[in-house]
Amino acid sequence: MEEIDKKKVIQEFLEFLEKKFQISSEEIIKQVREKEVYEIPISIFDNKELSALETICKYLKENLGLTFSRIAELTNRDQRVIGKTYHNSENKLSKPFAIKKTAFYIPLSIFRDKSLGVLETLVYYLKEEKQLTFHKIALLLNRDDRTIWTTYHRAVKKRGDRK
After folding, report:
1. In which band, very low, low, confident or very high, does the pLDDT at 33 lie, cut at 50, 70 and 90?
2. What is the pLDDT of residues 71-127, one digit of tens each?
3. pTM for this one?
4. DSSP assignment of 52-119, as one string?
5. 145 — phi, psi (to 5°)?
6. Cβ neighbours, 10 Å, residue 137
7. CATH 1.10.10 matches 37-108
8. Which of these, 20, 24, 39, 157, has the minimum number of CB atoms within 10 Å of its CB?
């Protein structure tokens, strides 16, 4: 069977799209990147060493191989903050995450809104979207039940929800 030159196939496809729809390769690539969906396994949060943002940065950098600038873009954070946060995570936990089988994956896009803290966003998502109990969330995130309850109610208050 003939070996496929993937780069050549992609280049030919881009040229086809450029001619057919009169849009540049750069615009096509930009549109594709915007449609990329990154999901984070909930199992990576099962550690006491790292904050939620440190956990996300470490996973995206080490497990998915993303650059600091791409992580910053995806999380709506400053690239310098991402770099510093990642380096802090390295100092606290040197080995990469061993990804365990998990029931939940968290869409990275939920962390773009900076009106809530990262942990607040995560807890709010798990409670509202996944309908999990505070105890189940606490177990998944390796946190105390009271911490999860407080974090959730702080998020509700910031969002102005009636709960």
Report:
1. low
2. 999 999 999 999 999 999 999 998 888 888 888 899 999 999 899 999 999 999 999
3. 0.76
4. HHHHHHHIIIIIS---HHHHHHHHT--HHHHHHHHHHHHHH--SPP-PPP-S-EEEGGGGG-TTS-HH
5. -55, -40
6. 25
7. yes
8. 20
